[in-house]
Amino acid sequence: MGTFARIMLTIFTAILLLGIAAPLAKAACPPICLVVTNADVPTPGFNSTSIFTTVNCGPMICPDVSNPSSTGSDSIGSSYFAIPQQAVAVYPTKACIFVGDAVGGGGAGPSDIAVFSITGTSPNWSVSAPTRYVAPHNPPDSGAAYGLGIVIHGSYLYANYTAGTTDPAVGPGGNGGTIGVWKINGKCKMNFLTSIAASSSGGGIYGGPIDGMTVTPAGMTLLTAYADGSVGTYGLTAATSFIAQGKQYTTLAYTQTSNTALATSVAAVQGPSTLWAIFDNADYPPPGALFDVFTVNDVAHTLAADTTYTPTRGEIIDSNTFVVSPNAKYLYAAGAVSGSMQTETFNDVTGVIGGAGCLDVTMRGAGGLWEYLAIDAVETSSLSVDSGNGNFLFVAEAGFGFSGGASYIGGLYIKPNGCLTEAGLSPQLDPSTPYLTSISTVTGNPSQ
Fold first, then answer.
1. What is the layout of strands, in order, in the sheet containing 291-297?
2. Which CATH number fits domain 3-443: 2.130.10.10, 3.40.1190.10, 2.30.40.10, 3.10.310.30?
3. Which among 15, 97, 8, 7 is positioned nearest to 409, based on CA atoms?
4. What are the mean pLDDT values of the chain's consecutive 10-residue runs (448 residues total)?
């Protein structure tokens, strides 16, 4: 599937790792353990986020408990697979939900980030009305091209405005995409700090916009994939809220596949002695995921030693996104077209991928109830994980016209050997979300 065809398919499925061991059961849900979805509704004025309580914090939602909350804005109804348009941050007194509205109010307004706060304990938790934040440029930074991506690291939010701004203050290339930096405080409020052009030409080496992005564990480097065969780095200095573009690189997978493999999603993994950047590639013709693995110099904000890995076991088709297990031993990749999950091992000492020995898992309803599958490649700060593989995954499955336009949320258990099995009651309907573009979780017990 071509890159620009993927944009118009309105597909984005996200997957999040949770590490709370609990059996699947029909029981009352414990204090705040919620699943949050972004509808990515293109109808002017009607984008929304829906909130579901989970069953025992396990891989299933309670279908009878939902709290749709309109953001009073709207989105584009389509985005790149690996652009995470939602994130969650948990603080001692409340959880904050950040939802990207790529177009803005009524389809004509500026892009905004709608921020909700969640307080209390189940079943008496409450959700605030949203506060919307617009980048203060003239015109404001926009995500109307391919989506508005959000990544949180510590108290900073990095926003991927794929349409950018023509404001001269941003500099050359701003109209091809910008990265905005916001400062978050524990009261679910934000202050705008700065934004820069994604590059002097507005994107990657071959003209693509930023797709997936993540911050290294130490918060020193922002890693990006441009969905055009190139990847990049940006230097970060939290003390001064500084961000600057580093370098861009053509991936080895791109050249080895005659320019067909396009890096889309990225994860940063800190090994015992080496920091790794792992990129997944879309549009790779044969079945199975194709990864690029770089070493990262976090101080110099550079990449080196690119190696490609094509695991032979997997048969998923059009892998665009993946996520790393909490212990960094497994990679879980989604086949956008096949609707199936692939598991591979990762060695954080050598950087080698492959050899898990797990069979692919085709999610129920693929091609019938819902159409496409992908994974949120950004691990949000709200996740509560154990020291091992994690215990289960939430998967969002985009309907895009199937089943009357509704989407679904799937659940999988992670076995001790890292392999996946779908939960018995998966998937569950998300009736308010025709274009499920992002999914997040809230765990813990924030209360005032």
1. 262-270, 275-282, 291-297, 302-309
2. 2.130.10.10
3. 15
4. 32 35 33 66 64 62 45 51 76 80 67 84 72 91 87 92 91 88 90 90 88 93 95 83 86 92 94 97 79 96 93 76 87 86 92 84 85 51 40 76 72 84 84 73 50
